[in-house]
Amino acid sequence: MAAGPPIPPAGRLDRAALREWLLKRRWYARSQRPWNRARLHAELARRHAFARGRMHGEILPMLRDGRLEIGPQAFFEDGVWLTAGERGRIRIGGGTFLNLGVMVAAEGLVDIGEHCMAANGCLITDADHRFDDPETPVPWQGFTTKGPTVLGDNVWLGANVVVTSGVTIGRRSVVGANSVVTTDIPPWSVAAGVPARVLRTHRPEA
User: Fold this and answer.
1) What local confidence, expressed as pLDDT, does residue 12 receive?
2) How buried is residue 97: exposed, middle or buried, by Cβ count under 10 Å (0-12/13-18/19+)?
């Protein structure tokens, strides 16, 4: 079975190893360079949005080429990570709050409505890692998607909720902490569990 190229053992940092390390640092740490951080905050300010601390991922180029849309008064706590492939798009509505360590990852489309709130450690994605090829290491197999992942307006996700590919969570729904959402949740629902199930509705009486 193919296992990929051999991983060299740790050893002396020679010129070739140093050059490789510097290339990786240049690529992976590019978003944390002071001038790029300043440019990112300027782009957020133009959209009347704000990040309290560092953000991770390809946020600056995604904003500039239109793959990332952020509405006014969106707020991001430290450590939020937004990432998308070449064809991936992320939309974040106005007034939405992403707390510490939230990750949003798109292969096609992740659409988060207005005034949503995701508590610490949530993952919202429309993608899954492929693993069907037994001859290729999993990190090399790329991603697959079941379709867009959509959160309606005013959705609240508790801490460490995972929202998976192709799922729609209806407006005004609440998902309990540590849940994994694998199927659609109707509007005005309270859901929880692994996988998440609707426990009750909280629609006000007409």
Assistant:
1) 67
2) middle
Confidence of residue 206 (pLDDT cuts 50, 70, 90): very low
What pLDDT digit, counting tens, does each position of 98-109 carry?
999 999 999 999
- Say if CB 145 and CB 107 are below 8 A apart: yes
Mean pLDDT over residues 173-180, rounded?
Answer: 98
Question: Which DSSP state fits 30?
Answer: G
Q: What are phi and psi of 143, to 5 degrees?
A: -130, 160
- The span from the CA of 149 to the CA of 122, in Å, is 14
Q: Pairing between strand 162-163 and 197-201?
A: unpaired
Q: How far apart are CA 160 and CA 192, in angstroms?
A: 12
48 is catalytic: no
Options 48, 56, 129, 202, the catalytic residue: 129
Rounded Cα distance, 88 and 166, in Å = 14
- Cβ–Cβ contacts within 10 Å for residue 47, how many? 17
Closest CA to 118 of 70, 77, 68: 77
Cβ-based neighbours of 124, under 8 Å, separated by 6 or more? 102, 103, 104, 105, 110, 112, 118, 149, 151, 157, 163
